[in-house]
Amino acid sequence: MSKNPLDELESLLKERPKERTSLVKAFIASIPLIRTKADEWFNYEVGVLEKEMGLLENVIPERIPEWTKRLEDIKSKFSKSINSMDKTVKEVEEGKIISLSEIYRGRKPSFPTLPTEEEKVEDLTANLLDIFDSAQELEKLINEVETEARRTLLLRRLLKIELDQRTRSSKRV
After folding, report:
1. 3: alpha, beta or left? (left if phi > 0; alpha if psi -120 to 50)
2. Distance between CA 151 and CA 157 in Å, rounded?
3. Interval 8-38: pLDDT, tens
4. Please, are residues 59 and 145 in contact by the beta-carbon 8 Å criterion?
5. In the predicted model, what is the mean pLDDT of residues 57-83?
C-alpha cells in the first residue's frame, strides 16, 4: 500500500534538510582546482614574459620600465584576488559563511551606488572576474612585448641581409 502523498511530503520535508548540501559548499569544492590551475598558468606566463623582457632590455631599454610597471600592477591585482578567494574558501570551510548570499550579495546594478572596495573584496564572484581580468591584461602585455620582439628580430634579419650584400659588393670591387 502506498503512502499518503501528504505523509510522504511531511517525511521528505523532515529528512531533506539533513541530506541537503549547500550550493556554496559544492561551489567552493571546485575553487581549489580553479585557483591552482590559474596560479600555475599565471606564474608560468609571467616567468616567460619576464625572460623576454630581460632579453629585450639591451635592445629597447626605453620600453622596459613601462612594461615592468604594468606587469607589477597585473601581478598585484591577481595576487589580491587569489588571496581574497583563499580567505573566502577558508571562511566557508570554517563554517563562518554558510550561504551563497553571504558571498554574492545579490546587488542589483545601480549606477550611483557602486559597491565599495570592501564589498568587492568579499565578493567571490568579483574575485573570479578579477582573476580573468588580470589574465586578459597579462595576455595584452604578452602580445605587446612579443610584437616588439618580432619587430626587433625582423630588423636584425634586415640588417644582416644588408650587411651581407655590402660585404659581397665590397669583395667584387
Report:
1. beta
2. 10
3. 888 888 888 777 776 767 777 888 888 899 9
4. no
5. 96
- DSSP per-residue string spanning 77-113: HHHHHHHHHHHHHHHHHTTS--SHHHHS--PPP-TTS
Ordered alpha helix ranges (H), the chain: 5-19, 23-56, 64-93, 100-103, 117-122, 124-172
pLDDT tens track for 107-151: 444 444 544 444 544 567 778 888 999 999 999 999 999 999 999
Residue pointed to by grid coordinates 502506498: 2
Question: For 106, left (φ over 0), alpha (ψ -120 to 50), or beta?
Answer: left
Closest CA to 42 of 145, 140, 142, 138: 138
Predicted model pTM:
0.71
CA atoms within 13 A on the CB side of 151: 9
User: What is the residue whose three cell numbers read 550561504?
Assistant: 99
CA-nearest of 40, 30, 42 to 131 is: 42
